[in-house]
Amino acid sequence: MKSVVRGAWCVVMFAACAVFGQSSNTTSTVTFSLRTLSGTAQNRALVLEAELNPDLDDGANIFWDATFEVHPTNGVATAQLEPNTYTVTMQGVAGDFAITVPTNGESYSALDLTTNLTAYRGASNGPAMVVFPLLTFRGAAQNKPITITALTNNPMRNGTNIVWGAPVEVYPTNGLASKPLEPTGYRVRMGNVPGSMTIWVPTDGGTYNAAALPSVMPTPVFSWSPEDLVSTWTDKNGQTNGDLETFNSIADLASVWEFQPSLSITNLANAFALPALRYLHGMYGGYQMVELDLTGCSQLTNISYATAIPKRLNVSGCTHLTTLHWISGGVLTNIAGFQTCSNITDINVYHAHLGSGEINNILLSLQSFGLSNGTASLNGQLGGGSPPTGDATNSVTTLISRGWSVTTD
User: Fold this and answer.
1) What span, in angstroms and rounded, lies between the C-alpha atoms of 273 and 271?
2) Entry pTM
3) How far apart are CA 381 and CA 378, in angstroms?
4) Residue 145: pLDDT above 90?
C-alpha cells in the first residue's frame, strides 16, 4: 500500500512540475574578459546583483537570490544568468557597470550586454609602456614608490576586454620606473610627498616618457577626415557643410550622408565620440574596414547604408534607433548590442552573411521590445540562407500577430 501511495505521490509531483516546473531554458552564458589597469589578467571576484528581485516575469518560476560572486581564472569569468538587469561590482575596487541579459538563452560577451562602459578614444590596442624618469630637487635619483590611479572609478572597455582594477604601485630603481598602462587618464602620486601629476596614455600601445604625455585629455582624433564626407553633413544646430573647424566641437556632428572612408581604414571604433549623431546614410569604399562601432550614439535614429563594407556593426546603447538598413552585399556577419535598440521598428539586413544565431537574436529582441506594426527583412542571407530556429520561430508568429511584416529565409 505504501508503494502505491508513493507512486501516486510521484505522479502528483510530476504533474505539479509540469505546471510549476522549476527548469528554465532561458539561462544565458555571459563571459567577462577582464584586465587590470596595466593590461594583465584581472582575477578579482565580480559581485552581481539582480535589479528585479524577486523576478516573476516568466510566469512559471520565482527567481529570487542574494548577491553572488563570479570568480575569474586567467582574467576570464563565465556565469550562467537568467534574464534580468544586473549591477556588476568588483571586490576591493571602486566603480560598477550594468548588464541586461536577454531571454533567448544564448552566449554573450558582457560587453555586448552593457551600455555604460566607456572607451577612451575607441581604444582597441593593448597597454602602452610609460616610463617615469625621477629625480629629487637636488638632482639625485628619486626612488620613492609612485601610485597610479585611473581618473575614472568605473570600468572601461578596450577592444574585447573590460579594464578594471585597483591603483597601480610602481617602484623606481636608480630613479627610473616603467609600467604598462591601458589607454586613459591617470593621476600619479608619490607616497606622502605633496602634489600629483595627471597623464593621458595614448591608444597605440607604444612607449612614452611620462614627462611628455599630455596633462589634459587631447581633443578627439578621428580616423577619417572631412574629405571623407563627400555629400552632405550637418551639425546639431542644423548648419550644413562648411569646414569642420567651424563646429564648436566635432562631437556636434549630427548627420552624415555618403560617407566614404579611405581604403586604409580597418575600423571606426571611436565613432562613439559623436553623441549628437542622429542620421548616418550611405557608405562607399572602405574595403578593408572590419568594424563600425557606434557604441553610445544614444541620439542615433536612422542608419541607412547601401553597399556597406564593415563585417561587424556595434549598436550598443543606440536606444533611439528606429531604422537600420544595412544592405551589405554579403559582408556583415555580426550585429553587437542589438538587444539595447528597444525602439527599432524597421530593420533590413537583406543579402548579408548573418548566421541563424544572429537572426534568432534579432527576432527574440524585437519580440521582447513589444512594439507593433514594424518591418523586419532578414532574408537572403548568403551561405545557404539562415532561417530562424528554436524559440525565434515563435517570435516570428508573435511579431506578425502584432502587425509586423517579417521576411526570413
Assistant:
1) 5
2) 0.54
3) 7
4) yes
